[in-house]
Here is the input.
Amino acid sequence: MFGVHNCVVGTGMYVPDKILTNDDLEKMVDTSDEWIYTRTGIKERRISSEDTSVLGGKAVENLLKNIGKNPLDIDLIVFCTMSPDNNTPSCACLVQKYIGAKNATAFDVNAACTGFIYGLVVADSLVKTGKYKNAVIVGSEVLSKLINWKDRNTCVLFGDGAGAVFIEPSLDVNTGILDTYTKSMGEKSDSLVSKSITIENSLIGENKEIDPYIVMDGREVFKFAVSSIVESVNKILTDNNLSTDDIKYIVPHQDNIRIIESAAQRLKVSLDKFFTNLYKYGNTSGASIPIAVAEMNESKKFKKGDLIILVGFGGGLTYGSVLIKW
Ligand code: UT7
Here is the structure.
């Protein structure tokens, strides 16, 4: 099976109905629509009362509906999240139960906002071995439960949602996932943190106070984000003897329009080549790229043969890109 590319045969997404606008946030913390919009490009975000696995399950249901497949067809479920329901069972296993995908192997991947890129790389590699016929890769987050709603530095940035794609070996040897690139920088792990809540360990006798909310060094992450987009795009272009002119769309992780503008400038690419929808969803971490791909696919933006680069970056720190010929 090595050498056969996997193609994205379908997409699906799900976002909760509840909308939290910048005007709503003005009533909660010392901020303004003007500050949020000019500094980030975000106007509103979705807030979920359901679990991360349920959002992911609904995105997969929509995906299966869109491509007319049955849950029993799914061989592998890779669920990408930094806001799982539990330590165990994994969100992937909960989705398997939710949709009744009894034939699947299911597990989670955590690479924060790069989660979907990492998940796609893992699933693509496993399907390429021939051991799995296909894979569903889900990116889903309920970040609203990891937000300190009194902290204006973070509460204006994030949102909830889910997206999913179905991949299987391409019948056309020239199309599909052509190449991938991933990197991690564990030495910079303190720049973006959300700790898991631990119960008191009576064996050790310590009663640690754990703050589970997202804290980050915004400026540091901003610089990292711009340079990681530039590196990830340039690396995958160079490795495949391509230039930005060959690329129809760059689909970045959706976090801040200023980050995307700076990266576009440094890559000398028109901003139009970058798809953005962050104004309506905020930063949905591992869900942002599959939501973007699902929206683009559903609005028929992709034509057969288009070259697309997906690029992610985030906590860990982690980053990477995927080159797809549609
Ligand atoms: O997926 C990766 C996840 N992380 C990110 O995407 C974050 C990357 N970083 C960013 O997007 C930006 O750094 C932020 C949007 C977080 C902040 O923008 P900035 O232009 O870097 O602002 P700043 O942190 O330099 O803060 C400027 C001022 C500060 O006030 P002083 O110290 O100048 O008086 C902040 O206290 O803005 C203040 N500020 C706010 N004011 C109104 C910070 N948050 C807010 C707010 N409303 N929500």
User: Anything to note?
Assistant: The first strand starts at residue 6 and ends at 14.
